[in-house]
Amino acid sequence: MQELKNAIDSKLLNSTVSETVGGRCYFNTAPDDQFPRIVYSRVSGVPDNAFAKAGESVLVQFDLFSMQSAGDTEILTMESQLKSLLDDCTLTISGQLCVGFMRQNIVDMVEDLSALGDGTSLVNHTAIDYECTYQAT
């Protein structure tokens, strides 16, 4: 997973979506509560061995967060930029051949981050899943 993480980090670095979120692109967890931001993580990984080469198919989820007070435009811009960057892209994964990186699913949500759950801190949350398939070179 480290090689895949490095490849995703490299793809996100200096991209338009990274600029939109002020460089706040994180693996697994964000270090603070600043918005907007992107947090990505591995959802699942299964062996995908073909043609006598070891491989893996990994589902990676990108969670996009934006304060609802920023309106829909911010989260929709982030979504559009992420899709432009990642849809059917090729990643450079050390020691691996990236066979495909394909979008699988998008889910939109609104979350209440306030301690009392009183709706005073609403966040737009869009989850976008990508399947990455790669094999050893």
Low-confidence stretches: none
Query: Residue share in helices?
Result: 10-25%
Total strands: 5
Radius of gyration: 16 Å
Span between termini: 16 Å
The helix-and-strand class reads alpha+beta
Helical element count?
A: 3
Strand order of the largest sheet: 1-2-3-5-4
Mean pLDDT: 91
Q: What's the overall geometry?
A: elongated
Describe the protein in words.
There is one protein chain. This protein is an alpha+beta fold and 137 residues long. The chain is built from 3 helices and 5 strands.
Tell me the layout of helices and strands.
Blueprint: H1 2-12, H2 16-20, E1 25-27, E2 37-47, E3 55-67, H3 72-86, E4 96-112, E5 122-136
Parallel strand pairs: 1-2
Antiparallel strand pairs: 2-3, 3-5, 4-5
Features:
137 residues, alpha+beta
What would you say about this model in short?
The chain is α+β, with helices and mostly antiparallel strands. The protein has 3 helices and 5 strands.
